[in-house]
Amino acid sequence: MSDLPHDIGKAAHHWFGKPISELSAHQQRALNRAMTRKPISKNINDAFQDRLTFGQRLADQVATFGGSWTFIIAFGLALAIWVGGNLLLRRAAFDPYPFIFLNLMLSMLAAVQAPIIMMSQNRQAAKDRLDAAHDYEVNLKCEIEIMALHDKLDQMRNEQLQMLVAKQEEQIELLTRLLAERLPRA
């Protein structure tokens, strides 16, 4: 915007009422982008996804599958088959009632799956924090540009008002001269 101050220090005082040294990194970045008229938007998902390790991607896939209806239905079927098979085999069952081996397997699954899901949730929370910080910068830049537009509109309105007043004064002067020429002098 042409109404943005050319000096970043003046811009900091103008838009934030503080010296540049007191602005946060987000505020400085948004102000700099507004002054240079560069976009600030970026896809946080792409940037975040590129930095994930194999283990982190695997944890995300495990968490995605573990929280799906496919997993719940498949797991329910596996449990029903396990329990049904062992009940039908009675004395020859490899895990007779009260299904102690099944309880051991379920405990081990929960012990492994819970931390993997928590790792995935922690990463999602970190991504959400990055996304929120980026949204703040975009919103801040938009606010700066909207304030600059308001300043420009105010300036244009004042210039138009001054031109209107000058025109009115000119018209009054012209009417006064015409009246003076037309009226007989006494």
Automatic annotation (TrEMBL):
It is a multi-pass membrane protein. It is found in: Cell membrane. The chain crosses the membrane at residues 62-85, 97-119. Keywords: Coiled coil, Membrane, Transmembrane, Transmembrane helix. The keyword DNA-binding does not apply. Residues 139-178 form a coiled coil. SUPFAM superfamilies: ABC transporter transmembrane region. Pfam families: DUF1003. This is Membrane protein.
